[in-house]
Design a protein that fits this description.
Blueprint lengths: L19 H6 L7 E3 L2 E4 L23 H19 L3 H7 L15 E3 L5 E3 L7 E7 L4 H17 L3 E7 L4 H11 L5 E4 L2 H6 L8 E5 L5 E6 L5 H13 L1
Helix pairs in contact: 2-3
């Protein structure tokens, strides 16, 4: 996109958690798109299940050609407006940053792929890890193996609920069989379930809940320090 504007525009990629712009706007998830200091798109706009201005998010499902074209057209219009000195007009079109997930574990009643019924009450008194993932996401597989290891290490003091989204059940079951982690609750995600957890803008997404069911922290993506940071947070909750 930037190349279309020649030397008048350039593309800059910033690492998650290191963007001063994202911090200024209170954006705590990814991806987020800025043109200069105008917030063009938030994670909710790319949400797999939406919860933003329109059902499904403005650019969801992102894999569809129609969504790509809609995003491309909006971004092109924003760049043109800013280059023409109409930043106020660009801000009027900009997306507002929205709050993150819930402050405590939402109520739910689900059946996992082993046929086990699971509710929030069933998890009471345990530290709970809720992971949103997808079969097409390579980093998700390593994260799932690590979560399975945590479950084995901490036993029944810890619960792991792995919720698959944008994935077909046969592919999910095949991946689960390959991982061999029987102590994890494997669940097929629904739009309603994802929205209960504050929606999902990207995978993997891990939310840690304390034994009082309050949200302790949410981790987005699979950065190099994910394991160290999450394990430290989990240890503090278990102790």
């Amino acid at each position: 996109m930037a190349q279309e504007f020649g030397d008048r525009a350039r593309f800059v990629s910033e690492n998650y958690g290191e963007s001063e712009l994202a911090k200024r706007f209170g954006v705590t998830r990814y991806p987020a798109i800025f043109v200069d200091d105008v917030l063009v798109a938030t994670p909710d706009d790319f949400g797999f299940y939406g919860g933003g201005r329109t059902a499904g998010g403005r650019y969801a499902p992102l894999k569809s050609a129609a969504s790509h074209e809609r995003f491309r057209a909006d971004l092109h219009r924003m760049i043109e407006s800013i280059l023409a000195g109409r930043k106020d007009a660009a801000r009027a079109m900009a997306a507002p940053a929205r709050a993150g997930g819930p402050s405590k574990m939402p109520a739910f009643a689900i059946t996992d792929l082993a046929g086990r019924r699971l509710t929030r009450e069933d998890l009471a008194g345990r530290v709970v890890l809720v992971e949103f993932w997808a079969t097409w996401c390579p980093p998700c597989r390593g994260t799932l193996r690590w979560l399975g290891e945590l479950r084995k290490r901490h036993g029944d003091r810890l619960a792991v609920v792995a919720i698959a989204i944008e994935s077909e059940e046969p592919a999910v079951r095949a991946l689960i069989d390959g991982l061999g982690l029987p102590d994890v609750n494997w669940v097929m995600g629904t739009p309603e379930l994802a929205r209960n957890f504050g929606d999902v803008g990207a995978v993997p997404q891990l939310t840690v809940f304390g034994r009082d069911a309050r949200t302790a922290e949410t981790f987005f993506g699979a950065p190099p320090d994910l394991h160290a940071k999450a394990e430290a947070r989990i240890a503090s909750l278990l102790n």
